[in-house]
Each structure stands twice: as structure tokens, then as C-alpha cells.
Design brief:
The chain is about 0% helix and about 45% strand. It is mainly beta. It has a domain of about 160 residues. Strand 2, helix 1 and strand 3 form a beta-alpha-beta unit. InterPro entries: Beta_helix, PbH1, Pectin_lyas_fold, Pectin_lyase_fold/virulence.
Length: about 350
């Protein structure tokens, strides 16, 4: 292979050369720089402390090639034979920056049981099942990324425990069942993103799955996001349908289902309306997941949000409003009406 070395810790990979060979040979602390161009084949990061840097979204592009074997655990909610673009398992202090991952049958990036992962300026484009999928991991940052066109979520945090300190910020998520999905994960921050053209823009869900870890969604922050025009319909019965096997969802901006101590603050939620059947007929929804093996929503707060121009309701609270906090919101239509009047005594 004709890779050139700029320094002891920096390796350059030209178009047509093997990125996996560079990853396999890398020592901790190595920076692997990918030139502008298209690179074929799925990648496994097997050394902690490496940085994989492209020339920028749309300039360095990773696409499927001959499938390479991987020891990464199977991707959740996917057939066993799917291939993810970049996979990491039990890795620490890995950064992936400045590239597009396109057209894989699994996820664009799949991180399982990792700590200290940073995805910056990464685009997931049309990866079949998930976009950027983080599972059972901690201290993960997704910054200034784009994710579109996946069956489930553009960005997902699944079973990340309390204290995991996961963050998605400055990112754009579109054309998926869920833009950002917080699935049985706690202490996740969803801040300053743009979610549009999904079935649900941002979904936080505590639900029990057969054979899965115990879950919960606690102590999360959803703040300063633009959540607009989410009109797709998800939850079909066919395996390839958007959001397959889930309940019908459409027209949802932000939903917190079975959550505890989630703060929804300073978001702008407009023009979300269903195009099909939905179990959540509101743009901002607080509801229980007890019927799905989860829990009632309690001690959540909606503050300083502008929620207008949505259908059929701007806000729908299907749990006891007295167990939540509502302050200083601008809400067009809601059920029940005048939600700010339902704030617990002493909080207004």
C-alpha cells in the first residue's frame, strides 16, 4: 500500500487505498487522514485513541464494497446480515470527522459499549436501518452532523446509562422515522439541532423490550431545537416500512413517553402535521409508556417553548398535568387547555 506518513502519528490515505489497513496498523493516538474521494468497504475501528478524518462531508465518501468480517455485536432492530459503514465496539477516545457514510444496509456509524466517542461533521446518507447509532455507551458527542433517510432514527442513543453524558448538538436530521431517538437512555442532551421531514422530530421513549436490558429515560435536556415539518408516517407492518413493527406515528415534533425529569426548554416547534394514522396526535406530547412495559411520565418540564401552527394539537399531555411543570410557553392549541395554568403550586 502506498500510504505516506507525515509524522509518527499521522497517516494519509489516498483514494483507492485501504482505510481498514490503516486502521489495523494504527497505534493509539494515530490520526488517519482520508483524502477527498470515494472509499469502498465497511470499516471496524479496533484501536482506542485513533482519529479518522476526512476532507469534509460530501468530499470524502464511504460506500459499500466487498463485506469485511467484524466482531461487532449484531445491530439492533435489523436482519443479522446487515453491514454498517463504520463500527466500533468497546473502544475509547475515538473521533470520526469530516466525511459522508452512504448507502449501507445497517447503520452509517454504529458504536457499541464505547466511551469518549466524538462524531463531528459526519453525514449519514441513506443508510438503511439507522443513521448514527450509539448503544450502551457513555461520553459520546455528535456535533454538526447530518443524518437522513434511515428506517428508524437519524441519530439514536440506546440503553446509555445514567451519567452517560451523551450529546447531540448543531446537527440536522431528516427523512427518517425519528430524527433524534433517545431510547431507554438517561442524561442525554439534545441541544441546538434541526429536525424536519421525519415522522417524529425528537422522541424520548422508555419501553421494555423482550430480552433487552432494563431501561428508563431520566434527567435529559431537549433545548433550543428547531423542530418543523415532520409529516412522514411511520409504523408500518412490512419489514421494510419506515419504523416497522412500531405503533403508527406521524406529525410529531417532540415526544417524551414514560420519561422522568426531562426538561424541554426553548424549542421552536412548528408545522408538524400527520399524513397518516398516529398514536400521538400532537406536536409536543407527554404520555405514559406503562402499557408498553415502561412507566408513567412524571416531573418533566416544558418551559419557554414556542409551539404553534401544528395539527391536530400543538401540545398533548396524556398524563396528569399536575405532575409536570409548564411555564412561559407559547402554545396555540392544547389538550388540556391552558397548560401553563396546570403548573404545580409554587412553580409559576
Amino acid at each position: 500500500m502506498s500510504m505516506s506518513t507525515r509524522s509518527a502519528t499521522e497517516v494519509l490515505v489516498a483514494e483507492g487505498e485501504s482505510v481498514q489497513s490503516a486502521l489495523d496498523a494504527a497505534a493509539e493516538g494515530t490520526i488517519i487522514r482520508l483524502a477527498e474521494g470515494t472509499f469502498e468497504g465497511n470499516l471496524s475501528v479496533t484501536t482506542p485513541g485513533v482519529t479518522l478524518v476526512g476532507a469534509g462531508r460530501g468530499r470524502t465518501v464511504l460506500v459499500p464494497g466487498a463485506p469485511a468480517p467484524t466482531s461487532i455485536p449484531p445491530l439492533h432492530d435489523a436482519p443479522a446480515d446487515v453491514i454498517s459503514g463504520i463500527a466500533l465496539h468497546e473502544m475509547t477516545d475515538v473521533a470520526i470527522e469530516g466525511m459522508t457514510v452512504r448507502g449501507f444496509s445497517g447503520a452509517g456509524v454504529y458504536a457499541h459499549s464505547c466511551r469518549g466517542i466524538r462524531l463531528a461533521d459526519v453525514e449519514s446518507d441513506g443508510n438503511r436501518v439507522w443513521g448514527l447509532y450509539v448503544r450502551e455507551s457513555a461520553d459520546v458527542e455528535v456535533e454538526s452532523c447530518q443524518a437522513r433517510g434511515s428506517q428508524y432514527a437519524g441519530v439514536a442513543f440506546a440503553f446509555c446509562p445514567a451519567g452517560s453524558r451523551c450529546l447531540v448538538t448543531g446537527s440536522e436530521c431528516s427523512e427518517s422515522a425519528f430524527g433524534v431517538f433517545v431510547d431507554n437512555s438517561s442524561t442525554v442532551r439534545v441541544v441546538g439541532n434541526r429536525c424536519h421531514g421525519n415522522a417524529a422530530g425528537i422522541l424520548l421513549l422508555h419501553q421494555t423490550y423482550e430480552g433487552e436490558l432494563p431501561g428508563g429515560v431520566n434527567d435529559c435536556l431537549v433545548s433550543d431545537n428547531d423542530v418543523t415539518g415532520n409529516t412522514l408516517a411511520a409504523g408500518g407492518e412490512a419489514p421494510d416500512d419506515l419504523g416497522a413493527a412500531g405503533p403508527p406515528i406521524s406529525g410529531v415534533g417532540i415526544a417524551a413517553i414514560g420519561t422522568e425529569r426531562v426538561a424541554v426548554v426553548g424549542n421552536r416547534v412548528h408545522d408538524n402535521r400527520p399524513s397518516g394514522e398516529t398514536v400521538m396526535p400532537g406536536a409536543v406530547v407527554l404520555a405514559s409508556s406503562a402499557d408498553w412495559g415502561g412507566s408513567d411520565s412524571s416531573d418533566n418540564s416544558l418551559e419557554w417553548n414556542v409551539i404553534t401552527g401544528n395539527e391536530p394539537f400543538d401540545a398533548l399531555v396524556a398524563v396528569d398535568p399536575a405532575g409536570q411543570r409548564f411555564r412561559n410557553n407559547v402554545i396555540g392549541t392544547s389538550q388540556p387547555e391552558r397548560l401553563d395554568d396546570h403548573a404545580p403550586q409554587g412553580t409559576v
